[in-house]
Fold each of these.
Amino acid sequence: MKVAEISSLGKHINEHVQIRGWLRRKRSSGKIQFLFLRDGSGFVQAIVEKSSVPESVFQVAASLKMESSLIVTGLVKAEERAPGGVEVLVEDVEILQIPEKDFPINKPDHSIDFLMDNRHLWLRTQRQTHVLKIRHEIIRAVREFYNDRGFVLVDTPIFTGSIGESAGNTFEIDYFDYGKAYLAQTGQLYLEAAAMALGKVYNLGPTFRAEKSKTRRHLIEFWMNEAEVAYYGHDDNIKLQEDLVTYVVKKTLERAGEYLRSVGRDTSRLEKIETPFPRITYDEAIKLLVKKGFDIKWGDDIGGDEETAIANEFEKPVVVERYPRMMKAFYMQPDPERPEVVLCDDMLAPEGYGEIIGASERIHDRDLLVERIQEYGLDVESYDWYLDLRDYGTVPHSGFGMGIERIVAWIAGLEHIREAIPFARTLYRIHP
Ligand code: 4AD
Ligand code: MG
């Protein structure tokens, strides 16, 4: 008997196949039982007709409970009205396990705390599998984008002795005889070293921030894709970000359009994403916010609500550039014409999804970099290797980091970032 994945059943019309999976739901109308099966690749309706199977098979089907593991043998039929265009007429059912307990996730209105407590089981629902597949396609497109353009993948370390962003939200650990070490907030500093060796590099991995903010955009552990390019200036950097985001949106629409629609995403908004993106300066952003009634002045941070207000002015992601240097990280290159601002940009997603990219040109002058490290209260000694990059053939260079869960939340249209990662780590949750 041929084993077939549910996603491939369209190629097996009028054939007898075996499906190895689980029972998601069951509905019965006396002489017919409808089994809604899943196997990871997809979902399909299987029909058990009392009149066409042995009584024992009908009884077995009747005894099934939600999330029973089973192997179903049946005939694949084309059925226009069914999702995926097929259904299965059951001939036999082999049971691996019928759970003794009722599956906890069994109604449409569980509280979010209950769902998160049961995240390991919640993952089995159709919506969650579709979100995970959207994330998968997004990450695939990210890797593809760089690989097709001659970038080299450089995996940056998780443990580090040199703080990459700011001292405010690091996870500190005791690292043997070395003393204090930190979980990476970013791989950027290491990517800068790699860019001096390889020219164009990228990474993709987990990063950690002890953020006290409990918002729908913040995770404690999140995945970041970063890119770093030698000889790139501020404008080259923005162009690369626009190309990346456009590529990822386009490929995800192409490959995961069905999943996007199934989780309720209005894809017409995404179809409009094309380069170039609108660009405004921090100065202009402040003026815009004041005009909209926000109590904000030059030098203030642009928070979540402000980001949403700015992004709502545009159809596409908006690039906000040249922030005051005091608000940004120590390594950012000053604007030569206005040293009080830096050559950085934040890309804000439309529809209130916030900052998806943080970027800048890097300081390549050793003396200025030392001055900034001290000014930001960081330990210069721990940056000896980073300063070496400025001693041996230093060049202008730029790069950025894109938050994977932010991009997933935006593209999939999720209300909260916790759904964008398989097992979210938030302020109050590390279990399961
Ligand atoms: O803007 P950030 O802090 O930039 C950096 O870490 C740079 N070192 C990157 C670089 O230039 N190589 O973070 C980059 C992105 C943000 O734009 C946001 O999308 C995401 O990472 N991000 C978070 N996502 C989820 N939860 C959090 N707590 C996040 N903090 C940042
Ligand atoms: Mg940022």
Amino acid sequence: MTHYTDKISIETSKTSKIDTVDFDNLDFGRLFTDHMFVCDYEDGKWQTPKVMPYQAMTFEPSARVFHYGQAVFEGMKAYKDDEGKVFLFRPKANFDRINKSSERLAMPAFPENYFFEGLEALLKLDSDWIQPGVGNSLYLRPFIIATEPAISASPANNYRFMIICSPAKSYYNAPVRVLIAEEYSRSADGGVGFAKAAGNYAAQFYPTSLAQEKGFQQIIWTDASTHSFLEEAGTMNVFFRVGDKLITAPTSDRILDGVTRKSMLQLAEDLGITCEVRRVTVEEIKTAAKEGELKEIFGTGTAAVISVISAFEHKGELFEIPEIEDSYAKLFKKTLLEIQHNISEDKHNWRYEIK
Ligand code: COI
């Protein structure tokens, strides 16, 4: 059946896959809900958006995205409380960021009303896919690709904005072991490191696969010019706890302005925990580890939530970080999840209810 809201055409799926899903055993990002949101940019403007059954799509082999990687994306989550109410977390931050990413990749800005109407329409249709309970969520992946069939190296005239949704539990099932980058770089001054550009992630796959061969799941990237400052891990921003104080790198044109990172800074203030936002060297962290002052490292991100980093290696030196009783990572994770799941007070107005 197709009906129209003010701006969106909605075609609902005749069948649902939901009964085939084992919600207790989800592999991150492999299963998608029954519907998706699609909006095309043609003739210089975004056309009427559609919600339609999740399905494969066809593109010409010459579509620019396949040749030049003109593509950006976002990561968001929807949560359900015990009464069945559905919430997003700080969605305006994702909306602002996708347009910032698009601008850097010479792509057109997406309209705010379409972004929110798309999210709302999808979440209403697929709300059964959001399981209640802390630890469950629906991961939302808005993205934009250059669809114009033309292979000259210039920005496309046609694009497709889409949102697909995938039920999610945790991204990492155990504490993460990381290698500190000594040779490869994720981003450079004046580059696209701050953007959620698809190519930023692809460029990490090879160095990360080398790290994985050595038993590390992720890399903590360092600055490209000296490899001495700690920046971010591929899927998360990173926080270091030295004594009772947290340190995280400032965002820059090389580092992603993470929504969870931003929220951590506010929660640290609320919880009375000092968090210094400043450049932090590998040497400082190694010295702190040797002196027993490095208490924790953790990563923050939408998919990763707050993931403990239990060991790091740099220049052949391995440092294990023993688990501690009064873990900030645990405290922040609980505090954050309780806000996201409508269990605790939302004093910063971060929740966005889908009504
Ligand atoms: C997210 O946390 O949403 C991300 O985009 C990271 C992704 C590579 C899973």
